[in-house]
Amino acid sequence: MQEPRQPVKLQSVIDPFVVKCGGELVSDLVGARNLPRNADYLFREYGVIAELKSLESNDFAGLVQRKFGALLGKWHRQRRFMVYGTVNLSTKQLPPDCRKELFDELAESLQKHVVLQANNQIKSTKSLLRLPEAKGLLWVASDNSAGMDPDVVWYLLRRILQKRKPTGELAYSSLHGLAYFNPRVPAKYVGGPEPLMFWFSGPRQTEDAQMTSCLLRLHEAWLPYLASSTGIRIRRVEARPEQVRFSDDKTSLTVGGKYD
Fold first, then answer.
1. 256 or 121, which is more confident?
2. What are the pLDDT digits (tens) for 160-191?
3. Number of H-type helices and E-type strands within the chain
4. Which of helix, strand or coil describes residue 34?
5. What is the tens place of the pLDDT at every residue in 32-58?
6. 147-160 tens-digit pLDDT
7. Between vectors from CA 35 to CA 199 and to CA 122, what angle results, nearest 5°?
8. Element (H, E) at 30
9. Is 181 within 8 Å of 92 (Cβ atoms)?
10. CA 260 remoteness from chain centre
11. What 8-state DSSP symbol labels residue 239?
12. Which of 71, 128, 163, 176 is the most exposed place for a label (fewest CB within 10 A)?
């Protein structure tokens, strides 16, 4: 019997891409000391330090699935929302109070395990590299983590990055841009038969030309790099988050309708 094919390690996909784009690996600059406390990449040309977070690492997917399952169980017992079997669940099917509770739970997990960690790592790396004016990029990779479809992940990350301190300043002040993509597993394009490699990105503040230029460079280079490195022809398809899905063969969450 053939052994199951092991997934390609994320760093083996992204590290060469970063170098090809003129970026540098922080580990090459500072060595392996205190590595978990540092960010991953430096794009010196743009003055941007990037931290790559995978939603498949550190059992984040399992954490989200457990939280989702616990909520479904609670709602069922309370007879607030009842669902049976394996379903594709759009959040527009939920009562407003359940939808808010779900998004609050998922956002808390993303905030603690992704956004806060990345903010601290970028802050630490700015000090270590003596680049106090560098901008920080949160770069999130997802290959169908925890059944959360791309519109849910994108919506929640943007929601978190809209938070402000009591002073009115943006929270997570070391983060200036966000990019979200699927580096290894194709998604599905709603309305078309072709598989899709998506990329959604943007600066936290629209007037941030420095971050905008860096994100544009990465976006334009990503699909050609992927096609070249895999030998697979990849056609560029422009899609909005709500038009993208992962697999339909298990419980999954899509935002659906308007973002509440």
1. 121
2. 999 999 999 999 999 999 999 999 888 888 87
3. 7, 11
4. coil
5. 665 668 999 999 999 999 999 998 875
6. 678 888 999 999 99
7. 50
8. helix 26-30
9. no
10. 20
11. -
12. 163
Convert 133-150 to b/e letters by CB count within 10 Å (16 or more is b): ebbbbbbbbbbbbbbbbb
Burial of 233: CB neighbours in 10 Å, binned 0-12, 13-18, 19+? exposed
Q: What is the average pLDDT value for the chain, to the nearest integer?
A: 83
**In contact, 227 and 233? CB cutoff 8 Å:** yes
Give the per-residue pLDDT at 75: 79
DSSP of 106-117: HHHHHIIIIIHH
- As given in the structure block, the two tokens for residue 29 are 């600059």
Phi/psi at 212 (5° precision): -60, -45
DSSP assigned state of 218? H
Contact present, 102 and 146 (Cβ < 8 Å): no
Contacts of 81 (CB under 8 A, 6+ apart): 72, 75, 94, 95, 98
Q: Determine the angle formed by the axes of helices 96-110 and 60-77, rounding to 10 degrees.
A: 160
Structure tokens at 67: 């939280």
**How far apart are the C-alpha atoms of 140 and 137, rounded to whole Å?**
9
Sheet-wide strand order for 195-196: 195-196, 187-189, 244-245
Burial class from Cβ neighbours inside 10 Å (0-12, 13-18, 19+) for residue 80 reads middle
> Is the Cβ–Cβ distance between 225 and 20 less than 8 Å?
yes
Largest CA distance in the chain: 62
Q: CA-to-CA distance for 198 and 244, rounded, in angstroms?
A: 8
| Residue where the block lists tokens 């949160």 | 138
Q: Which amino acid appears at position 13 of this protein? A: V
